[in-house]
Design goal:
5-stranded antiparallel sheet; 25% strand; 21 helices; OB fold (Dihydrolipoamide Acetyltransferase, E2P); 7-stranded mixed sheet; alpha+beta; Phenylalanyl-tRNA Synthetase, Chain B, domain 3
Length: 863
């Protein structure tokens, strides 16, 4: 995000006296430039100029020599807090005593002194303190201590006025050093939306501040006297054999040569200071000038060492297998879509990635005297793709991919050349190469009442025309009710009439648009499926579970961790080409793949138990192969659309939960029971019942559940088929260990969409019973492989219309029932709508139930 020093902004627009960063941020927010951060003055308090009156070197026992310095800091600040018994030479003039360890100054020098009460960068407060046998009443400052960075002359030690950081500066004891060194600058950092790339410059932000406040604005680009392009300067060729989207990769290329530059010339202090405030590190005069002009005007520049170039400079696409070592010392393999800057008759040497970053082979160095300045207009899409392909964001690419004013290249190159010559000597070549053309923005036809119709509030003709002219548009009438609007060259985002309406609304003021809540249409609301999903989630929340939201990205080894068989459908995962995290490249195929790591994370944060659930999507690869990437210039063909559709993964909504550890807090009644597999089954049934469906439970070995304590969950479809919709039970011990979960942690998972589809469309209200129920218990001994649901179904058949509820309340295995057999105990509630059931009727029903179970599953009534 761009950082805007207020003193720099004030060069292009008028800031009222006393305007601070907070007010500037507020003003800019009115035109859509939101404040990201505010950086106040780096130094506050009494930082003053001092003159060294006396300097006494005092060797210490540790071998170090310190200076006991008497400094005149002006009549207002000269207070002696040192021990009055201490020898005080030169007391004919008032002064302060300060301990200093630096040795790059002598008596008579003017230095920078921070007095007690000063706060330096890093929130470092200065106070008087006793040290080395003296009271040091302040501090003599170095450039690093004031946030100015290393000394430009390479001299270590404190700042001395007249050289280094303070070259060309002077003053008198007591003068304000904050203003002298420019340390009072406040900085506003703003957030720029992708469609407003012109605000990545002081030129653009100053224009927007003028729009917001009505302050006078001076375009810095108009102050540059541009030479006439001769066409006989540095040879340039633009060869783009494979334009993207039909767009030429480079539409304009300016090359301007500067010779005889002093390689030892230093960046002026004011420029280095501005670059630092704007978030860039000063490097050298030539590099700093190119960065300064880019920040000021918005046109990225690149400087080549002319001695290392071989004419001509050629702009072309990369060839397969080509490599480039960029300025960050990384060798990169290039892609045929990359736009390159090369040189030589055969254009074989790659100099840089166009609009992104230059190469190391022609970078300027400490011995460079002749340079070639490049300023070009590159295709935004080409630059954006290259920057992302190589994961190489740069200040240049940020601007090019958002669109740079195509009229700026020659202006920016000229301005940079002038600054280099002004501060480093040399000569600007008369011959300037300006290859390419500038395409004027396309006019837009705008209905005079379009803003009123789209925004919903009336705008006068003066507001419409004035707003558009204010942003630089040329506005001409087209009949009585239309305008022809030509956007300015720096606004490539203005393409449609709606874009112009947005600008009108923005400049007149968003505050003028009232907040009107729309009236909800009658007869609408949540769909049946939406209500059902919410009911299922509410049922789990009411049971004490906590809902979580976890991303669907999972690691590649999760299927092995959960012990899925090799042929398990849940291994059909979708692999992402560009995952958010390298260690999570797959989309989940089961909700437990996300919930189990979340449970581990919660337990690792100090939780003693876990009871969490989530409803979300799971994905299965369709088997249709990779989706084709259609050409961006035209609409995809029907075949391409069909191939894309075939490649889309299968997706459904799943409800899952993980339960482990104590089911509640300890109390005077003792420790609570731990969550278990029966709780998982019960909660799954609650969720299904909340949507009007009933689950059938069948024991089955299914990963990642315990072999003997897991079950698959089924529902009956409208066609009468029984389909699997999930699983429930205790997790496998190996899975519990892998995720560090409490012993016997349980879980369930439901395909909630399938459960909802199985529920009856209309649920008939049960009549209020008139007669009392009859309660009977049965214990049937059956083969161990017989599911309880089969016995329950047989009981319902035997009881017929009198069955009101059947509930399994006990399962027993042991010697008493025989090896390979089990006892299932059911509580059965019977009720008649015609009268109270008598003993004979109940007895007949019992016999019918016993016979039905014996016939269906071979069950015997346990004695």
């Amino acid at each position: 995000m761009p950082r805007i020093p207020l003193t720099w902004l004030a060069e292009h627009t008028t800031l009222p006296e006393g305007t601070g960063a907070q007010q500037v941020a507020t003003d800019l927010s009115r035109v859509g430039l939101e404040e990201e951060a505010i950086f106040g003055a780096q130094v506050t308090g009494p930082l003053v100029v001092g003159r060294v009156l006396e300097l006494v070197k005092e060797p210490q026992k540790n071998g170090k020599t310190i200076n006991w310095v008497r400094v005149d800091v002006g009549p207002e600040h000269n207070e002696d807090l040192d021990d009055p018994k201490d020898p005080q030479p030169g007391q004919e003039r008032p002064s302060r005593g300060i301990i200093c360890g630096a040795h790059n100054f002598v008596e008579g020098d003017l230095v920078v002194v921070s007095l007690p009460g000063t706060v330096l960068p890093g929130d470092f407060a200065i106070a008087a303190r006793k040290t080395y046998g003296h009271t040091s009443d302040g501090m003599i400052c170095s450039g690093d201590e004031l946030g100015l960075g290393p000394d430009p002359d390479g001299e270590d030690g404190i700042i001395v006025l007249g050289r280094g950081h303070a070259k060309g500066l002077t003053g008198e004891p007591g003068d304000d050093a904050i203003a002298l060194l420019g340390l009072a600058d406040e900085v506003v950092e703003i957030n720029v939306t992708p469609d407003r790339g012109y605000c990545f410059s002081m030129r653009g932000v100053a224009r927007e501040y003028s729009h917001a406040t009505g302050a006078a604005y001076t375009d810095p680009a108009l102050a540059v006297e541009v030479p006439a392009a001769s066409g006989t300067g540095v040879a340039v060729e633009r060869r783009d054999d494979a334009p993207l989207r039909g767009a030429e990769g480079c539409t304009r290329f300016v090359a301007l040569e500067v010779t005889g530059v002093d390689p030892s010339a230093q960046t002026p202090r004011w420029m280095a200071r501005r670059l630092t405030l704007a978030g860039m590190r000063p490097i050298s005069l030539i590099v700093d000038v190119t960065n300064y002009v880019m920040l000021d005007l918005g046109q990225p520049l690149h400087a080549y060492d002319a001695a290392k170039l071989s004419a001509p400079i050629v702009v072309r696409r990369a060839r397969a297998g080509e490599k480039l070592t960029t300025l960050d010392d990384v060798e990169r393999t290039l892609d045929p879509e990359d736009l390159l800057i090369t040189d030589g008759a055969d254009a074989s040497r790659v100099l840089g990635l166009a609009g992104v970053m230059g190469g190391a082979s022609t970078e300027v160095s400490a011995s460079t005297t002749d340079i070639v300045l490049e300023a070009a207009t590159f295709d935004p899409v080409s630059v954006a793709r290259t920057a992302r392909r190589h994961r190489l964001p740069s200040e240049a690419s940020k601007r090019f991919e958002r669109g740079v004013d195509p009229r700026l290249p020659l202006i920016a190159a000229t301005r940079a050349a002038q600054l280099i010559v002004e501060h480093g000597g040399g000569t600007i070549a008369r011959e300037v190469t300006d290859d390419g053309t500038v395409t004027d923005p396309a006019p837009i036809r705008l209905a005079a009442d379009a803003a009123e119709r789209l925004v919903g509030i009336p705008y006068t003709a003066e507001q419409v025309r004035g707003s558009l002219e204010q942003i630089g548009c040329a506005v001409e009438p087209d009949g009585e009710d239309h305008l022809v609007v030509t956007p300015p060259s720096w606004r490539p985002d203005l393409l449609l009439a709606e874009d112009l309406v947005e600008e009108i609304a923005r400049l007149v003021g968003y505050a003028e648009i009232p907040s009107v809540l729309p009236t909800a249409p009658g007869g609408r609301g949540l769909t049946v499926a939406q209500r059902a999903r919410r009911s299922a989630q509410r049922a789990l929340a009411e049971a004490g579970l906590v809902e979580v939201k976890v991303s669907p990205f999972v690691p590649a080894d999760v299927h092995d961790t959960l012990r899925y068989p090799a042929d398990d459908e849940r291994r059909r995962a979708v692999r992402l080409l560009n995952p958010l995290a390298e260690d999570e490249p797959l989309l989940r195929t089961s909700m437990l793949q996300s919930l189990l790591p979340t449970a581990r994370r919660n337990l690792g944060r100090g939780e003693e138990s876990v009871a969490i659930f989530q409803r979300g999507s799971v994905f299965r690869a369709s088997g249709g192969g990779a989706a084709p990437v259609p050409a961006p210039a035209t609409r995809p063909s029907e075949a391409e659309l069909a191939a894309i559709a075939a490649a889309l993964p299968e997706q459904t909504s799943v409800l899952g939960a993980v339960l482990g550890g104590p089911s509640g807090p300890d109390s005077w009644q003792g420790a609570p029971e731990a969550w278990g597999w029966t709780d998982a089954l019960d909660l799954a049934r609650r969720a299904a019942a909340a949507v009007g469906a009933e689950l059938e439970v069948r024991q089955r070995e299914i990963a990642p559940l315990h072999p003997g304590r897991g079950a698959e969950l089924r529902v009956l479809t409208s066609a009468g088929d029984s389909v699997v919709v999930g699983l429930a039970g205790e997790l496998h011990p190996a899975v519990i260990k892998a995720f560090g979960l409490p012993a016997r942690t349980a879980a369930f998972e439901l395909d909630i969409e399938a459960v909802i589809a199985s529920a009856p469309a209309v649920v008939l209200a049960a009549p209020v019973p008139t007669f009392p129920p009859a309660k009977e218990d049965f214990a049937f001994v059956v083969e161990e492989s017989v599911p309880a649901s089969a016995v329950e179904a047989a009981i319902l058949v035997g009881a017929g219309d009198l069955a009101e509820r059947v509930h399994l309340f006990d399962v027993f295995t042991g010697e008493q029932v025989g090896e390979g057999r089990k006892s299932l105990a059911f509580a059965v509630r019977l009720r008649s709508a015609e009268g109270t059931l008598g003993a004979k009727q109940i007895g007949a029903v019992r016999e019918s139930i016993v016979a039905a179970v014996a016939s269906a599953v071979g069950g015997e009534l346990r004695a």
